[in-house]
Amino acid sequence: MSLAFTTEKQLAISAVRRACSLTSSVFNKLVKNETLTKGDKSPVTVADYSAQAIIGSILQRAFPQDPIVGEEDAAELRSESGATIRDRIVSLTNEALVGDLGLGDIAEWGIGPGSEQTPGQILDAIDRGNYEGGRTGRMWTVDPIDGTKGFLRGEQYAVCLALLVDAEVQVGVLGCPNLPVDPSNPDGDKGCLFVAVRGQGAQQMKLSGADPTPLSMPPYAPSTFNFLESVEAAHSSHSTNDKISKLMGITRPPIRMDSQAKYACLARGDGGAYMRMPTGVGYREKIWDHAAGSLIVEESGGIVTDSRGQQLDFGLGRTLGENHGVIACIKDAHAKLLQAVQQAVADEASVQSKA
Ligand SMILES: Nc1ncnc2c1ncn2[C@@H]1O[C@H](COP(=O)(O)O)[C@@H](OP(=O)(O)O)[C@H]1O
Ligand SMILES: [Mg+2]
Ligand SMILES: [Mg+2]
Ligand SMILES: [Mg+2]
User: Fold this and answer.
1) Which of 75, 201, 286, 289 has a CA that sits 20 to 30 A from residue 164's CA?
2) Annotated binding-site residue? 332
3) To test the ligand 1 pocket, which listed residue (72, 178, 289, 319) has its Cβ within 8 A of the most ligand atoms?
């Protein structure tokens, strides 16, 4: 019997790997005017756009019917002021598309020597990410660089791609170019790829595709349990985590890290829970920030819910809807953690109502 989603898995690995080699090489050459500030004040670089163009272009060739929910769009690049950055993105994307075929790559996906695209095709490949999402059918979701702030600091970031079918994540791939391959040797080799297919487990491999190893989360051990959380306090509440941590009796400090690399590290046994509690500014979490990572944690034996213990709903459109936070955790610690979370949320609400 052939396994489900074999082609999709291989394609997602190939696309993410190609995008990762681009982001790593751009980091070393990035110049100041290659970072723009978006309407929401967040940064976006030529690497974000080019990585989305690469993934969009490969998906267009392999699965032309599948819509894409992607973080970036090409509106700014189509404007007059976007001309310089557009030219750079076109040449970076083409450089990456024509790179030699590697393990598992298929030339029919529009990669390898001779696969250049026109500027118009590249902008269209980025804009394929404009799909609004929804509850039914197949769709991909892509975050070309998750943790752009981490990328700019030379710290953690992830290239993220997931396939959803009827609002359920079926395939998830995370490429983490700056993540140590062996967590016990942080100064050793860097560059990991994480992949999961629903019902088939999760694996870590090197970005080159070598050394695939199955992932499985360790059992709950109170003495080593701690939280993974964002570096950016604006993205998730450090203070709420601190209260939850005290209620749980956790003594180890949190591990701060940008991007969905947190999901990946949790899946391979770091910390015990990835905590993303809302900061109260009405921000809605985006599906591309959670789809791939949540499946990798679930397929490694973990559990992912919101702060009420409910499953994340990927069928609401481009966002996860009203923000009740995200809690990804070792399965047998989840009930205890949820109790502490709800206590902390209730305490915060009562302090606010008295203020
Ligand atoms: N106020 C907010 N609350 C929660 N997440 C936010 C936020 N503002 C931006 N983000 C998201 O936080 C992501 C980074 O998460 P983390 O802090 O875990 O690294 C960003 O992804 P991008 O970097 O892809 O834009 C962005 O989507
Ligand atoms: Mg962004
Ligand atoms: Mg993101
Ligand atoms: Mg991003």
Assistant:
1) 75
2) no
3) 289
